[in-house]
Design goal:
The chain is built from 2 helices and 3 strands. The chain is an alpha+beta fold. Strands 2-1-3 form a 3-stranded antiparallel beta sheet, sandwiched between helices. Helix content is 46%, strand content 19%. It has one domain. The longest helix has 25 residues.
């Protein structure tokens, strides 16, 4: 984990990788965590949160480089 912000290219790559992972995880998450917010980093589910704000607080503290997504588990999220 780096304390430095990621470059725009790193951000783009991370977003793409994490969104692809989310697409794969979504069917299972809809069964177990529908309506929650999934924090995805390095192509893997880190944790789900009740609110977007909870996920954002955790992510900002834990991953200051910003290389993650925090997305609602819902039909049509992708």
């Amino acid at each position: 984990m780096s304390d430095e912000a990621a470059s725009p290219e790193q951000m783009k790559q991370a977003i793409n990788m994490n969104m692809e992972a989310f697409k794969t995880l979504l069917p299972g998450l809809l069964e177990t965590d529908k309506g929650r917010f999934a924090l995805i980093r390095n192509g893997a589910l880190v944790q789900t949160f009740e609110t977007m704000a909870e996920g954002a607080r955790y992510a900002n503290k834990t991953y200051p480089d910003g290389l993650y997504i925090n997305v609602k588990v819902a039909e049509g999220s992708v």
